[in-house]
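Run log // design_07
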């Protein structure tokens, strides 16, 4: 009898084939990434780091790590190549949240202050939310966005001077515009704070050179590998060389145990792919598709946060144009039509996070499936038709 698990995997495979996937943080990995993640490397324990790592590593705690040592070094080298950097890199974080936890633990003590973007303005739970370790372990202050939805750099400076944080964090889960890392760097340096960037969403754009790079400016850079980088689910940390020992120690033994070498193999495959000219073309197409879809919604009379997008996502705000409509109602109506996106808070949000007044739309996944601008425009028209039929 076949395992129930494989029946369910086939069911999910079918869902992924048939649905229109507009969740901005999702993507479809290559067969080679899947193969690496499903490989025998899952059997190997490898607590520690490759022995030759020049960060005070004592090597691995288990025998038989010769191959995974080579693999992990290769993954690190490839990711440095992707971003054209000589930063130290740690490819062991199990997720973006684990990467952020380890990044904080590397340079902060419990009770230190972090200044980050607030969740309802586009930040992530791990950027200081009271329900997350970040808000429980550290004091947090937040900067926001201006009325037109752009990062409020004056507010950032004011809050930095008021709270004197030990670390200033740039990066977001729902911000459609270019982030000015130079401005963040200047503010961080002016108050003697560490400058950290969580580039989880835009890492692919940075790799392809279509978003300014934080390398050279940020002390620590975290990312997920599964969004625009199109790798397996996981995290990574880059840091300036002088922080390498602290970051490695924060990942293991402070925050994690044995690394997931099968996932690290998948990350290495994704890095090889991200080095290719095809990846750059893919990311350029993501940005074009997102702009085309966003523009169509504008033409159809929708209000877009900041009036547009520079990256792989945009936010529709229903507050003025459809006051009775919630992000949840739209998400549910689209789900029934096999279109997947997520409800999202909008700047100045009045509704609960479980309801919201907006939705977030991302085109990275459907661009992987081969979409061009005309598909993105047709999708906006179809969504508009479904929204128009919602009774509220
Ligand atoms: C900016 C940002 N950082 C961190 C994370 C956390 O990543 P993970 O879900 O892998 O823990 C996310 C997830 O969406 C994110 O958007």
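design_07 sequence
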């Amino acid at each position: 009898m076949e395992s129930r698990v494989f029946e369910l995997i086939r069911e999910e495979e079918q869902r992924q084939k048939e649905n229109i996937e507009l969740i901005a943080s999702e993507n479809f990995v290559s067969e080679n990434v899947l193969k690496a993640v499903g490989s025998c490397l899952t059997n190997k324990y490898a607590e520690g780091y490759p022995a030759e790592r020049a960060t005070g590593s004592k090597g691995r705690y288990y025998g038989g790590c010769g191959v995974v040592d080579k693999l992990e070094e290769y993954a690190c080298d490839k990711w440095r190549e992707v971003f054209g950097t000589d930063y130290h890199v740690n490819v062991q974080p199990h997720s973006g949240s684990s990467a952020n936890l380890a990044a904080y633990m590397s340079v902060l003590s419990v009770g230190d202050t972090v200044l980050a973007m607030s969740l309802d303005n586009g930040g992530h739970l791990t950027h200081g939310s009271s329900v997350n370790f970040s808000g429980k372990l550290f004091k947090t202050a937040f900067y926001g966005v201006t009325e037109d939805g752009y990062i409020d750099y004056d507010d950032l400076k004011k809050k930095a001077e008021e709270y004197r944080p030990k670390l200033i964090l740039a990066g977001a889960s729902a911000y459609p515009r270019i982030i000015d890392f130079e401005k963040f760097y200047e503010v961080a340096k002016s108050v003697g704070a560490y400058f950290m960037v969580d580039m989880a969403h835009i890492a692919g754009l940075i790799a392809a050179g279509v978003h300014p790079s934080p390398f050279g400016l940020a002390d620590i850079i975290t990312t997920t590998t599964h969004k625009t980088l199109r790798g397996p689910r996981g995290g990574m940390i880059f840091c300036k060389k002088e922080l390498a020992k602290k970051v490695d120690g924060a990942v293991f033994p402070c925050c994690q145990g044995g690394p997931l070498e099968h996932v690290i193999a998948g990350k290495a495959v994704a890095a090889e792919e991200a080095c290719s000219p095809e990846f750059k073309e893919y990311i350029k197409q993501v940005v074009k598709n997102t702009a085309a879809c966003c523009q169509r919604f504008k033409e159809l009379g929708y209000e877009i946060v900041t009036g547009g997008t520079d990256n792989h996502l945009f936010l529709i705000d229903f507050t003025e144009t459809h006051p009775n409509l919630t992000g949840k109602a739209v998400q549910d109506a689209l789900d029934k039509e096999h279109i997947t996106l997520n409800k999202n808070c909008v700047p100045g949000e009045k509704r609960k996070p479980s309801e919201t007044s907006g939705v977030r739309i991302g085109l990275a996944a459907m661009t992987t499936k081969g979409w061009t601008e005309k598909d993105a425009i047709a999708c906006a028209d179809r969504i508009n038709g479904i929204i128009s039929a919602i009774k509220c």
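The radius of gyration is 21 Å.
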